[in-house]
Automatic annotation (TrEMBL), chain B:
Residues 14-234 form the Pyruvate flavodoxin/ferredoxin oxidoreductase pyrimidine binding domain. Heterotetramer of one alpha, one beta, one delta and one gamma chain. Keywords: Oxidoreductase, Pyruvate. This is Pyruvate ferredoxin oxidoreductase. It comes from Methanoculleus chikugoensis. Coiled coil: none annotated. The lineage of its organism: Archaea, Methanobacteriati, Methanobacteriota, Stenosarchaea group, Methanomicrobia. The keyword Hydrolase does not apply. Residues 256-349 form the Pyruvate:ferredoxin oxidoreductase core domain. It holds the Pfam family PFOR_II. PANTHER family: PYRUVATE-FLAVODOXIN OXIDOREDUCTASE-RELATED. Signal peptide: none annotated.
Amino acid sequence: MTNITMRSVTNLSAIPKEEYLYKCTSACAGCSSSLCLRYVLKAAGPDSVLVVPACCTSVIQGIYPGTAMNVPVYNVAFAASAACASGMSEAFAAMGRETNVIVYAGDGGTVDIGIQALSGAFERGTNFLYICYDNEAYGNTGMQRSGATPLGARTTTTPGGKPTTKKDLDRIVEAHNPPYMATACSAYPLDLYKKVKKALSIEGPKFIHILAPCPPGWRYPTEKTVEMGKLAVKTGTWILYEREFGKLSISGPSKAAMKKPAPLEDYIKGQGRFKNLSPDIIDLMRQQVQQNIQRLAREEAGVC
Amino acid sequence: MLTIATGNKAVAAAVKAAKPGVIAAYPITPQTEIVEQIAEYVAGGDLESRYIPVESEHSAMAACIGASVGGVRTFTATSSHGLLYMHEMIHWAAGARLPIVMANVNRALGPGWNTWAEHTDAFSQRDTGWLQVFVGTVQEAYDATLMAFRIAEDERVLLPMMVNLDGFALSHITQSLDTVELGDFVPPYHLPHAIDTANPLGYGPMTGPDDHFRFRWDIERSMRDARGVIAEVEREFAERFGRSYGPTEDYRCEDADVVVVAMGTLGKEAEVAIDRLRDEGIKAGSMRLRWFRPFPDLDLAGREVVVIDRDYSFGFGGVVAHSIKSKTGIEPYSVIAGLGGQEVTYNDIADFVRNRRPGTETWFGVSDHV
Ligand SMILES: Cc1ncc(C[n+]2csc(CCOP(=O)(O)OP(=O)(O)O)c2C)c(N)n1
Ligand code: SF4
């Protein structure tokens, strides 16, 4: 699986100093998905290949012949990443290679156009790690709605706010019974790092869904990227957990937040995409947050 | 070893001999028998490949792309709607310079649903950078598939290759098949740009106009070089295994006044028509066009030409007829025939020649001429 031995990581200083994502990326200022990628690669180490469909990450690498990455990056068509990774993983297996195959795909390339390939690869038990970094819109093409855009959010194709709710990707993936799946958030890099490490230590299809706040998409000042991620978790809008062989455990930062979530308005008010939300929509959003918290808390407690 | 097989089984047997590391495929009539037979080989331990039963053709080609760049030989097979569903990845495979080999069992496209032979599917992929050969017999389906790995993987080529065989008319008919002991005819897979984590590179990143243009020119240069490589490989194949092929298969052409050009099984059928016409004193010959990309130079000067197209480019004309016109300057008699598996016998082909009207086009059995 991985040639990196598991070591206990309790604090940020245990994260390797090696950089696989250089400072010369073309990411927007305050881009949290590139921050996440940096930690993902630190956890995965040098014997890894990234498979990247069309998304912001296609741009972040920079323009040929330069590259901002210190691992091989295989760019592939929008709908194709999970299938391409399937082929690559089988090829490595045929050659007896242990190289990590990691898809790093946006929410659009995962919940919309790429979901067929994702579902196929998981059903077939492909040995790979699929990471969806979720900035809740199509960033690459200028912030159109995706299936992962939340209710009420304004995008360039939902100028009046998205009328429908966010597609529940995690429950779709969960239905495939992968040996490991987790949620993460860019504001909690240590948690992400540990989850990537754990995922890569397990054979079979693994999945990590990272909430990745995006300043131009969410319309907040660039310096608030970490704060925005923290608020998503503290309000219970985004719940951090992992599911190992089906068994759910809520991750540290979400444990407290789920007991006593911060007011939802704290999360909404700083984001231009949620400007002028009607009280009805805010009520619906609050109900969703509560339902999710209750569902996951009950499951963790073994109450079904 | 002499045996009998369908066109599909012959392709599968060639794949077994070439031992790809990964095969990813999705079934579609009339290709299905190929992927079933390969699955049997793998399940029975006769072929040590990893078989990925993907959920769609888009994914089949994507998986081949991942595996090919990952460092192993790859194969897939499809037909018709499957090929078109792959279209995006077909471009990707060629642009990424991956020597994927694919059998395409030529079939019409809907609507309505028609599972019989037509070349429109392959021709719709004309400008993707794939090499394309069209075969006429079960033996040739086998031989061309073996040679495809050799040609595609040659460092002077490094382009994917499609072996086309007519749906049912060849995929499902049984003929004798002589399988070979491959020996070192197909060397171990080596891709100079296979992924190597010790030497990290970006594959297919954002590329500006100048580099893009250079990459496209590089594909064209390889297409041109491929002509020599194809000739070399076909020559070596003939020396080793005693069966020879060329850009065209010519039949009684030397002294012919009129030459029939067709592809696939219609090209074979034309040979019988030529014998009839010769008996009547008409000096006819046939030239079965085997290669579509790269398109060969044809020696047709000073003769009348009858082209049979099992395809059509709407609002324009038969694809082969127009290709020949633009290559040779000859105004052929263009017959559109056999679409959707329409039966075209040697008698019909003889009629095309007898009633030829150079510079015009007719749709066999539909328009009033012929
Ligand atoms: C078949 C196809 N359709 C559309 C596009 C254009 N396109 C490129 S990236 C993209 C959106 C990507 O969004 P997401 O996956 O959420 O990633 P992000 O850009 O936000 O990182 C779109 C629509 C494409 N490349 N291919
Ligand atoms: S649009 Fe958002 S996700 Fe994309 S690079 Fe910019 S900040 Fe990052």
